[in-house]
Specification:
Number of domains: 2
Distance between the termini: 43 Å
CATH superfamily of the largest domain: Aldolase class I
Oligomer: single chain
Number of helices: 14
Structural class: alpha/beta
Largest sheet: 8 strands, parallel, barrel
Strand content: 15-25%
Bound molecules: flavin mononucleotide
Mean pLDDT: 96
């Protein structure tokens, strides 16, 4: 099934990850085979009242062929206004976050708190669908404290969502335990819109397990951290020979948009992910974690990777 220019047959998607899915990371993932990429979650309210704060999160790259902008909020009117905010005009799809478990989001009745209030969740989806000339999708979890994903998925479909993504854990689980693949298969069997399966895909084995649920697409989050080439590998390709060149490209893309002062702290986590599989590198990684400059970190990375 096609939505816009995305063929949902085995689509590989880069997950939204707040504080991680920057423009450089998304560009690399798409160049390395991701078919669709999600923005970090964007506050509908902040977009309305303080657009400058959101602007840098809505930067996208030409390499992103199917771009999904994800919004969160709890007020149908504000959410519907966000859909047509000029900051989101270049996205192919507007996705609604109904899965975030972070306490500061949940306490405002947003993210996965909406899984406890199906009428309000439905109202938000309908308001966004009515306001939008583009497809609207929803990303959610199994439920807040128990699995209601089939009921929730059917509600999303009835409210006009074009496709849905399930991270198969409850809010209360956070990231503990494993994603419930049987629940994903049950959801897939009970709706008529495409379903993207999400949770714990990190290699070919876990990818094949996720595909066996019958999903139309697979979304990868943590499995792509420090490995934007995971999409290429899952499509039968190989890890890039020159990992340092990938890191340098990531840095160069970000340097076009962000200050050195911001990046020196921001990039540390990415550098640590890029090096997490290198054996006996704890001392070097500590140096990276405390390095006062990006150029110094790059020099350390070059030495260790080349
Ligand atoms: C650091 C981080 C930030 C995240 N931010 C978002 C977000 O902004 N929106 C969202 O829907 N999910 C967010 N997630 C959840 C992921 O999109 C994904 O559903 C989850 O990590 C499970 O997939 P995985 O096992 O492939 O990582 C985030 C996850 C992580 C680890």
């Amino acid at each position: 099934m096609k939505i816009g220019n995305l063929d949902f047959h085995e689509a590989l998607c880069l997950a939204p990850m707040a504080g991680v899915s920057d423009i450089g990371f998304r560009q690399l993932a798409c160049e390395e085979g991701a078919d669709a990429s999600w923005s970090e979650m964007l506050s509908a309210r902040a977009m309305l009242h303080n657009p400058k704060k959101t602007e840098f999160m809505t930067l996208t790259s030409e390499a992103e062929k199917f771009k999904v902008g994800q919004i969160f909020g709890h007020e149908p009117v504000i959410m519907a206004k966000a859909v047509n905010n000029p900051l989101l005009s270049h996205y192919d799809v507007i996705d609604i976050n109904m899965g975030c478990p972070a306490p500061k989001i949940v306490k405002n009745g947003e993210g996965s708190a909406l899984m406890k209030d199906l009428p309000l969740a439905g109202e938000i989806i309908r308001a966004c669908v009515r306001a939008s000339s583009r497809p609207v999708s929803v990303k959610f979890r199994l439920g807040y404290d128990k699995d209601i994903s089939r009921e929730f998925g059917r509600m999303c479909e009835d409210a006009g969502a074009s496709f849905i993504t399930l991270h198969a854990r409850t809010t209360e689980q956070g990231y503990s335990g494993s994603a419930d693949l049987d629940a994903i298969a049950r959801l897939k069997a009970s709706v008529n819109i495409p379903v993207i399966g999400n949770g714990d895909v990190v290699d070919m084995e876990s990818y094949n397990r996720m595909k066996s649920t019958g999903v139309d697409g697979v979304m990868i989050g943590r499995g792509a951290q420090g490995k934007p080439w995971i999409f290429r590998i899952l499509k039968g390709g190989e890890k890039p020979k020159d990992v340092y060149a990938v890191i340098e490209k990531h840095v160069n893309i970000l340097r076009q948009h962000y200050s050195e002062e911001f990046l020196v702290l921001y990039l540390r986590k990415h550098f640590l992910w890029y090096t997490c599989d290198i054996p006996y590198a704890s001392e070097t990684r500590l140096k990276i974690a405390t390095s006062p400059s990006i150029d110094e970190s790059l020099k350390i990375l070059k030495d260790i990777l080349k």
